[in-house]
Specification:
Blueprint: H1 6-30, E1 35-37, H2 49-63, H3 65-70, E2 78-82, H4 89-100, E3 104-108, H5 109-112, H6 119-134, E4 139-143, H7 146-149, H8 158-176, E5 180-185, H9 193-197, E6 201-204, H10 210-221, E7 224-225, H11 228-237, H12 243-259, H13 270-280, H14 291-294, E8 310-311
Parallel strand pairs: 2-5, 2-6, 3-4, 4-5
Antiparallel strand pairs: 1-3, 7-8
Helix pairs in contact: 1-6, 6-8, 10-11, 10-12, 12-13
The structure holds adenosine-5'-triphosphate and magnesium ion.
Amino acid sequence: MRPTNLSDLRRRGSKTAEAASAAQQLRTELGTLVDVREPKDAEEPILGEVVRAAILGWLHEINAAEELRAVGVKPRSTALLYGPPGTGKTTLAHHLAARLGVPLVIVKAEQLVESSLGGTGRRIAELFDGLAKVGAPCIVLMDEIDAIGTERTDDNQACAREMNAALTTLLQRIEGFGGRLIAATNRHDKLDKALWRRFGLQISVDLPGEDERFAILKRYGMPYDFGDEAIDALTEVTRGAAPSLLRQVMEGLKRAVVLGDRLRLPMNDPQAILRIVIEEARPHPDYKPPPLWADVRLVSTFAPEAWPPAREARA
Ligand SMILES: Nc1ncnc2c1ncn2[C@@H]1O[C@H](COP(=O)(O)OP(=O)(O)OP(=O)(O)O)[C@@H](O)[C@H]1O
Ligand SMILES: [Mg+2]
């Protein structure tokens, strides 16, 4: 949405300044426990219909909090995002924070884990106390929540007891937290059931479908115009690839266009270039490789309209 008039611009400006000052306070108070990102640095992920609808619904709900409270509905304040690596969970949390005009406070759950007795519980307490002390509106993203949120065990080993205690502290702190909290994981099957239940929304951020792959390839191909047919062909042979890998491929192609002569790449042969790019950008060996990586001969389907590609008129 573009600001329409001067007062709109001023309102936006003051909201940006507020978010920047809140971000600074959070950094000062929470130090190395967190990484704070501001709304201005957010980018919008390209998502499937279902996730988009869920997120839009949540935004409407947050903006209509008073109306909902008036009829006895408490707006949901927590969400769990789960799905394979590189599908946009962190990007989405940042985008949501930006839509609300507040900073995103990223806590890597792994950083909360400490080996001393009661250490993890103390760090969790330190985090939530710090957030309450600053009191500034923000979204907290507990990334890799599985690091402390895996299913509790009956194991009586000191380490298991320690993790169970830390998880109990986390559950209590989430319950008592007044702000908005998102957790992300790519190991949702391992999550403790009581923790799972703490989230008002559970959203699966899955690998992109065909339309999303096309849009992602196109976005990261900009400002070059590779032509829809070439992007279509790439869409087809990258079935099963995460957005992060699609981004790597397109950035690899752009890098080659810019540096190709200096690197003595075969600049008259786009298929050879794509082949070099996919040798350097690969899916994790644990995942089933998308067709292009399973059969490298599929580079032959990549035939851009012009090579090197033209820059789009509006970059
Ligand atoms: N849906 C998407 N649309 C556009 N770009 C995306 C999308 N998903 C990921 N990306 C790009 O891929 C990169 C990694 O994304 P991100 O860190 O959000 O993934 P993630 O799901 O949080 O991964 P992980 O599970 O490893 O934490 C980002 O640079 C982002 O720009
Ligand atoms: Mg992430």
